[in-house]
Amino acid sequence: MFAKLLARLAMVLSMAYFTLALVLMFAFAVLGEPQALWEMLEIEESTPPPPLWSLMVSAVVALFILVALGLAYWFIEKILRGGATVGFDHLSRYLRGMAFGLMGFWIGIKMLDAVLPYLLTRHLSVDIRPPFDWDQLDLDIVLLIISVAIYAISQSLDRASLIEEEHKHFL
What we know:
The protein is mainly alpha-helical. It contains 6 helices and no strands. The protein has helices at residues 2-30, 35-40, 52-82, 88-114, 116-121, 141-170. The chain is elongated and about 75 Å long. The model has no long low-confidence stretch (mean pLDDT 90).
């Protein structure tokens, strides 16, 4: 019971924190104060503000990240709510949804790391554009590996659900 409560609290707090941080970050950037955005993307704070169109594209990527994380959290909540009474078929769907949410979150984070810094500074001349490093195999890769494993488990539970259904017909 305590673990479920702790997990729910962590999900609510992290979702609220990420949402508030991204909303404020982009709001200030639109108002011409991109320092928080630059800090998150590890860009020199003295870099001139980005054009509005690149901020809007970046905001869509940030929204995608929040939706993907929200989807993963939604399915985690379904698993926590169901507990041991969840059937194989439902658990399979919940795990698959959670896996897709985590994969989407990973894709969004990779876009945030690799694409957005270039997009937000593309308007600058090459001599003042900051250099970017992109490490595809950083610690975030663990999230992708775990989400793929969760997806594989969901497929195994699909098979278990079919076997369970066959056994019901015998009894």
